[in-house]
Design a protein that fits this description.
Order of helices and strands: EHHEHEEEEHEHEEEEHHHHEEHHH
Radius of gyration: 22 Å
Bound molecules: iron/sulfur cluster
Oligomer: single chain
Number of strands: 13
């Protein structure tokens, strides 16, 4: 734990958001978010959901930051920036200010040492940007996979960084807080971000790494229905081999992950994940999944999958199609029965 310094300030704003990123953040730690902020030496200037200040008091905080009278360490924005109608941004005003979130984002981001997009909506546009998108939603510095967004491709914060994209729908609270801690310590550089501006704290992993279904994956022993124990990639749409995140290596809400809960990974950390149709179905061509793992060449995967399928132990094959352990790993049984 660092010494409490209270010299790194944080302003959190919500744009086109469901509030899920805030909910995720509040899950943080046994002692709670506020205690953790205090421990990290981060002073929360204002958050629309949890701060006492409202109305005039809140507007005064924003005005002080805008005029440069209050130093801003991190500007965290949760939710997509809505550009509609016709580029005015007026679909989403910051209550009581008469100004759009598009306007506020553009006014405050240049004042911040660092600008942090919390969640895939703020990073890339996210769910509000899904077709047909009458709101004309974008992320802060991306629209899907394309750079640009509300702040433009050339935006750099006071400390010279582009927007830090803590993507995820919602992101793990650890991703948010570890990023803020690294920023507050001045130890976060461009080299700590991947090609989409995502902190490598979590983006150097694939969501697939550490999944409890990995044995089934290795043998391509697949579930065909939900509640079965097998790998969810071949039939049920799991994209964890193509999505960044250490989701299966650290617990969510004290333990668990999407795949552990029996659902598939829908690649929520990726730009344009919302464009997928049929999240729980694996698109295939000629019986081969279209989206293949990021971490190996396609030809290897196809060859290895065929090989491993032919070598699948009976135990693994049976358990993959069962909702409980149908066959235990008893030594010798495999040999006798094959
Ligand atoms: S269910 Fe998904 S995350 Fe788990 S092993 Fe299969 S592909 Fe990987
Ligand atoms: S497992 Fe996939 S869908 Fe779930 S949080 Fe991680 S990246 Fe998002």
């Amino acid at each position: 734990m660092t010494e409490a310094r209270d010299d790194f300030t944080l302003l959190w704003l919500q744009a086109g958001s469901c509030g899920g990123c805030t909910m995720a953040t509040l899950e943080r730690g046994a002692s709670g978010w506020f205690e953790e902020l205090r421990g990290f030496g981060i002073r929360l200037l204002w958050h629309p959901s949890v701060s006492e200040e409202t109305g005039e008091e809140a507007r005064a905080i924003l005005a002080r930051i805008e005029r440069g009278e209050e130093k801003l360490g991190a500007l965290c924005i949760e939710g997509s920036i809505l550009h509609g109608p016709e580029g005015t941004g007026l679909f989403n005003k910051l209550s009581g200010t008469g100004r759009s979130m598009l306007d506020w984002a553009r006014a405050l981001a240049p004042r911040a040492d660092y600008c942090v997009a919390v969640g895939s909506c703020a990073a890339f546009g996210g769910v509000p940007a899904g077709a047909p998108d009458p709101t004309d939603a974008s992320g802060l510095q991306y629209s899907g996979v394309d750079m640009g967004g509300a702040l433009g491709p050339d935006y750099r914060s006071v400390k010279g960084l582009p927007v830090v994209n803590v993507s995820g729908c919602a992101p793990h609270p650890g991703w948010i807080m570890e990023t803020l801690l690294a920023l507050s310590l001045g130890r976060f550089t461009q080299a700590d971000m991947d090609d989409y501006g995502r902190p490598r704290i979590f983006a150097d992993h694939l969501a697939h790494h550490g999944c409890s279904r990995n044995e089934f994956y290795e043998f391509k022993a697949s579930a065909e229905d939900f509640s079965e124990r097998g790998c969810l990639m071949e039939h049920l749409g799991c994209k964890a081999t193509q999505a960044v995140g250490d989701c299966n290596q650290r617990g969510w809400n004290g333990g668990g992950s999407c795949t552990q809960a029996g659902s598939t990974c829908i690649a929520c950390t990726s730009p344009s994940f919302e464009a997928t149709r049929g999240f729980h179905r694996t698109p295939k061509i000629g019986g081969i999944p279209v989206g293949l793992p990021l971490d190996m060449p396609k030809a290897w995967f196809v060859a290895l999958a065929a090989l491993s399928k032919s070598a699948t132990p009976k135990r693994v094959r049976e358990n993959a199609r069962s909702d409980h352990i149908a066959r235990a790993p008893t030594p010798g049984t495999e040999k006798k029965k094959t």
